[in-house]
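tl;dr need the bound structure. longer version: we got a ligand (ketopantoate) that a collaborator sent over and nobodys looked at where it sits. i said id run it. heres the input, straight from their email, havent touched it
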Amino acid sequence: MTQPLKIAVMGSGGLGGYFGARLANGGADVHFVARGAHLQAMRSDGLRIEGPEPIHLPRVSATDDPATIGLSDVVMLGVKLWDTDSALAQIRPLVGPDTAIISFQNGVLKDQYLRAAFDAKNIMGGVGYVATAIDRPGVIKQTGPMQRLLFGEFDGSRSPRGERLLEACLAGGIKAELSGDIRREIWQKYVFLVGLSGTTATIRKPIGPIRENPQTRAFLHDVMREVVAVGRAHGVDLPEDFAANRLEFVDTVSKDMTASMHHDLERGNRLEVRWLSGGVVELGLEKGVPTPLNRAISDILALHAGGKAA
Ligand SMILES: NC(=O)C1=CN([C@@H]2O[C@H](COP(=O)(O)OP(=O)(O)OC[C@H]3O[C@@H](n4cnc5c(N)ncnc54)[C@H](OP(=O)(O)O)[C@@H]3O)[C@@H](O)[C@H]2O)C=CC1
Ligand SMILES: CC(C)(CO)C(=O)C(=O)O
């Protein structure tokens, strides 16, 4: 009998907790790295997913010390972007020659950080679509039915490790795909997310009114156009009019949809703007592509980026 896939989830909040729970439910050998009250609750009461497809795992393997988990087949990175450096330092004991490390964090800079810290052969690319948050310790709440994971080798090959992860995801009911062009998938989400997060957080409204008002709709379109221009300058295979495609996609989502960064702003949490619109500015500067709207979004949110506690 083949051994179940051993998966370490580094950061078991909205994203990692949700997809890790589904993987465990499907039979994968999942080990959650968590901390604080969330870790205590997971140790005493397991992990619960609330929402359209609820799950309760009464017992889970959860720790704050990745070294106790040992070598893993897959490490899924699910910490907020500001915690990336410390998380990458902590996952070293999990990584052997064949381990796949996949960041499902938002943005595109995440994979540069991974490449700086680990051998390229250990790194696969990933994108997560879901709207989840820790509701209370040990409990992840999902809003709406969307859930999708895309991952793949950066050279486009269908590797055995990619196939095994796909199988484990499908067994857990995850809408998963092994992508032949994961870099483009990561940028496609980036275009949409920078548009959604930049507009909802600065205008402080969900997407419905923003897409209905001609002035804010044009703003959203132009913010996404900048991301497309920067991606194309970096050699990403995005059609020139891809922002118009994403605007059509925006018209299909619920009018109440907003970005996690807007939620974070309303709760006084730290913001990922440095890696979202800020990442567009940084990557635009590298190629001489102007990004005035994303620069404005970063500047407008600068005083909020550290959260209320800052
Ligand atoms: N949630 C979502 O719907 C989606 C999120 N994403 C992206 O996924 C990433 C994670 O977001 P999300 O899951 O929402 O964030 P959360 O804050 O819900 O989860 C991250 C968790 O990781 C924990 N953590 C951080 N560092 C460590 C560490 N060193 N050891 C143990 N635990 C640690 C945090 O603990 P603490 O709270 O103590 O800091 C927190 O519980 C972000 O880049 C986000 O943009 C992408 C798609 C959808
Ligand atoms: C748009 C969404 C919910 C998609 O997963 C997201 O990633 C975010 O708001 O951070």
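gonna send this back to them w/ a short note. DSSP finds twelve helices and ten strands in the chain.
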